[in-house]
Amino acid sequence: MQTTEVFGVSLPLSVACFLFQFVTYHITCGFFAIVDYYKLLPNYKLHNSDHKTYSQLLPRVVFNQVVFYLPSFILLQYLGIAFCSFEPKLSVWLFVADYLFYSFLQEIIFYSGHRFLLHSKWGFQLLGHELHHTTKGSVAVSQHYMAPIDYLIEIVITNMLPFFFMKKTNIYFELFVISLNTVTGPWDHSGYKYPVGESSFAHSMHHLRSSCSFGGSAAFTDWILKTAYYFYGYTNLPKIKESSNH
Ligand SMILES: [Zn+2]
Ligand SMILES: [Zn+2]
């Protein structure tokens, strides 16, 4: 396994990648936790519907990341699928094309698993998705607050499976797409408006209504399959009792 030096310690590339995205995830979530705690951006906050706090959610999040996500990085390096090499060099155009293809596959995998397994009559409880739905989309760190099978479907398989369908990419590309999800995912669960797009609003709608907007940040699937919240006539987030924690 190819290794790289991280602060003087030689680590497999996959472990170094895991640590990098782990840090970006927790910087993103820490930032939102501070903004929430001190109410720094009240005009951008869509809702405060969560009752579980950042510190209550954090232990399960870290457990999921270390116990389920980290081994998947190592497995992909071991299999020679990703996190293996700084080669091949990718032109800007190839990088963009690979990014679009990865995002396309990621969205289809996420939507399919989320809508047809996790929100099926039998799957919501059996696969543990109900735990993620005890959060309401207004605390960023709740993205990774999931039961084990739910976490394997929505995070591990969704982010790793696309690499199996792509021709060889390099570590910079892999780090980019994985780390991008550590910003957009928490943002979609933060309850804050995006400066562009509306995926945080759509995912809040999903958490608060459950029966619409099953897609990830790209969400073209909801548009094509007519499951976006606006196809049901929803325009506002339903009011539920605001948390005293915010
Ligand atoms: Zn969610
Ligand atoms: Zn759901």
Core attributes:
membrane; Fatty acid hydroxylase domain-containing protein; two-stranded antiparallel ribbon; 246 residues; 56% helix; binds zinc ion; mainly alpha; 9 helices
Oligomer: single chain
Domain unit count: 1
**Number of H/I helices:** 9
Overall shape: it is globular
Distance between the termini: 46 Å
Main-sheet strand order equals 1-2
- Catalogue the ligands: zinc ion
Could you tell me the radius of gyration in angstroms? 18 Å
Query: How much strand content do the residues show?
Result: under 5%
Please tell me the overall pLDDT.
Answer: 93
Helical residue percent band: 55-70%
Order of helices and strands: EEHHHHHHHHH
Write a structural description.
A hairpin with a 2-residue loop joins strand 1 and strand 2 (9-12). This protein has nine helices and two strands, in the order ββααααααααα. The mean pLDDT is 93. It has helices at 13-37, 54-79, 92-118, 123-126, 129-132, 148-164, 171-188, 199-209, 220-224; strands at 3-6, 9-12. The longest helix has 27 residues, at 92-118. The chain is mainly alpha-helical. It binds zinc ion (2 copies).
